[in-house]
Amino acid sequence: MCYDVFYHFAWKGTAGALRANTALQLQNAEWTVEALRLAKELGCRRFVGAGSIMEHETMAAAFTQGNRPGLGYIYGGGKLIAHVMCMSVAADIGMELVWPEITNAYGVGEISPRLVNTTIRKCLQGESPRFTAGTQNYDFVYIDDVARAFYLIGEKGKPFHEYLIGSSHARPLKEFLIEMKDAIAPDLDFVFGDIPFTGTNLPLAAFDGRETEQDTGFRAEISFAEGTRRTRDWMAGLTS
Fold this sequence. Notes:
Layout: E1 5-7, H1 22-41, E2 46-48, E3 51-52, H2 54-62, H3 73-93, E4 96-102, E5 105-106, H4 115-124, E6 130-131, E7 137-138, E8 141-142, H5 143-156, E9 161-165, E10 171-172, H6 173-184, E11 191-192, H7 210-216, H8 224-239
Parallel strand pairs: 1-2, 2-4, 3-4, 4-9, 5-8, 6-11
Antiparallel strand pairs: 7-10
Helix pairs in contact: 1-3, 2-3, 4-8, 6-8
């Protein structure tokens, strides 16, 4: 049997305390390189990783004078290390490396404690969620769109290119959260400014997905309001 494209999604510690586990995040990077070498042994011509917008945020956080990055950047550093090592190894062994970078995937099937899930759970419990001021730039993309993007990038992406997977409508986080409130919890108060923001704010240009659309034809189809409604309905079904 001949294989063409090898997709690598496995990554332990994408949420919660394990994001700050240095040994684990370094091991994730090493496992990714091992998967790349295995793809070569299997006869694949192309390796598609699963990068993150956190790679760019991590570089900005690490190379800003006087900044004190939070522990979440250890996860971002692992993704960045995997990206760099895979590029070098792929070039050396003659593999086509394509590196999608996800902004913030969410949707049906996810049970992590990340922002969208935590907020929806609070809404289902009738609790008003609390946030930072929400002025930092952000983007979200629904899981169905993410899956379609990976297929198109694997099929049409150019070797040794990175491709952003996002909604093409990046904006300040507060605007997304208000859209969620209107869609799933119009009667609840969303409280902004109670939690300090300790991250790095990327410019909107960092979320530009035009090259992805140009090379692969991908454009997200599911709005954040619709995606959060679908996710809310699924999560409500888990507890009913």
